[in-house]
Amino acid sequence: MRLLFPAARFERPWQIAPSWLRARGLKGLLLDLDNTLIPYGYEGPTPEPLRVWLDELKRSGIAACLVTNAKPGRTRRWARKLGLPGIALVGKPLPFGFFWGMRQLGLERKALAVVGDQIFTDVLGGNLLGLTTILVAPLSDKGLPHTRWVRALERRLLAATPTPEKEESE
Ligand SMILES: [Mg+2]
Predict the structure, then answer these.
(1) For residue 52, how far is its CA from the centre of ligand 1 (angstroms)?
(2) Which of 69, 91, 131, 157 has the most CB atoms around its CB within 10 Å?
């Protein structure tokens, strides 16, 4: 069961301050794309809070890459737009994409955090590898059909148990 719980929860990724990461020895982020950084299927301009946050991370020496189950074309477009390396179709919670991210950023597990909106892909996958996992609230309800009932299950899981670590961004 412990594998299904994140180390920390934030409403939005841009609330995760570089100082909060540094205080925990975290130097790199493996970022989910859909419903974490941008709404599922969104193709517009980069949202301002996201752009500002990524700049802040870069200035603070926090490395980041996209590890996403999205398709290659969409992943490539957003990787280019956000100025991050990225890998598509990784089949989270399988470890392949996270291993790629670790090599890409050249960081050890204890220095890496997974940031994502889904327990059964992002949190489970990250926890299986001993990475720090940060759960954010999904940016939209849109997703694949099976995702909707998984979300209902996630809500029940989270509601049934105390918040693992209630922390606010600085
Ligand atoms: Mg997602």
Answers:
(1) 20
(2) 131
* CA separation for the pair 87, 82 (Å, rounded): 13
Question: pTM of the prediction?
Answer: 0.88
Structural domain includes residue 16: yes
138 C-alpha to ligand 1 centroid (Å): 7
The angle subtended at Cα 42 by Cα 36 and Cα 43, nearest 5°, is 125
Give how many domains the chain has, as a whole number.
1
For residue 170, is it within any domain? Answer: no
Task: Give pLDDT tens digits for 48-80.
Answer: 999 999 999 999 999 999 999 999 999 999 999
Distance 143 CA to ligand 1 centre (A): 9
In angstroms, what is the span from residue 170 Cα to ligand 1's centroid?
Answer: 24
Residue ranges, the chain, pLDDT below 50:
145, 167-170
